[in-house]
Amino acid sequence: MLSKRVIPCLDVRDGRLTKGVKFAGNEDIGDPVETARRYYEEGADEIVFYDITASHEARGIFLDVVARVAAQIFIPFSVGGGINTVEDMRAVLLAGAEKVSVNSGAVKNPEIIRAGAAAFGSQAIVVGMDVQRAPVSEQIPSGYEIVIHGGRKPMGMDALAWARRCEALGAGELCVNSIDADGTRDGYELRLTRAVCDAVSIPVIASGGAGNPDHMYEAVSAGGASAALIASIVHYGQYTIRQCKERMAALGAPVRLHW
Question: Are 35 and 235 in contact (CB under 8 A)?
Fold first, then answer.
């Protein structure tokens, strides 16, 4: 059985680590390079970085962060935020990332998924899906809707239909973030996670809502996810990566425990 991954997520704004709740109220909580190094040393399997402003002016600063992270950690990491072209992907990968994460740009131009997979391989292409609950309708039969622009713009797209399309276009992995659960620490949206896992055959990362390692275990067991994304519980020192993985292992999840 493949090991389940633990992946801390670092939101970056203007070169600084930031965190909010339900995509709002972000505050500065530290240096992303130092934090990434600490999580690597604690046993993180991968790390995800999101440039949450992704303005043209901030792009150069963020690529510098990517390069500095690549010199400090020796595990895979992915980078997302404002990636809209193959050239954007190439710049991030050349700066040292192993994967790129596309989200809003892929919704607006799905062919970027196919083009990125052709240029760099499916393993390098992660599609981030920001999802919120919506009334069940003919347009959104699953009751889960895709939202873009940092949770500000509902798209009237069914999340499961979009997940299947991303896989067909060549995505190597999906990161499914529940806006309703994001930052709440009340647990992942397991129904959403399981529905996406059942809809596709590529790995799915559960994101949004982790409050303790038991929630992480639920995401990779009942939820069916290949990995659990975490942020608040490690950013604020409630748990270390090591404590999370040891608890998941005690509950029966196959995780890597080599430090």
Answer: yes
**Phi, psi angles (nearest 5°) of residue 206:** -85, 135
Domain carrying residue 24: 5-251
CA angle centred on 189, ends 184 and 195, rounded to 5°: 165
Catalytic residues, which ones? 11, 130
CB-based burial, 15-53: b 16+ in 10 Å, e otherwise: bbbbbbeebeebeebeebbebbbbbbebbbbbbbbbbbb
Per the domain annotation, does 98 fall within a domain? yes
CA distance 214 to 230: 12
Whether 126 is in a domain gets the answer yes
- pLDDT per position as a tens digit, 209-247: 999 999 999 999 999 999 999 998 999 899 999 999 999
Statement: the pTM of the whole predicted model exceeds 0.85: yes
pLDDT tens-place string over residues 12-69: 887 788 765 554 456 666 889 999 999 999 999 999 998 876 644 556 668 889 999 9
CATH of the domain at 44: 3.20.20.70
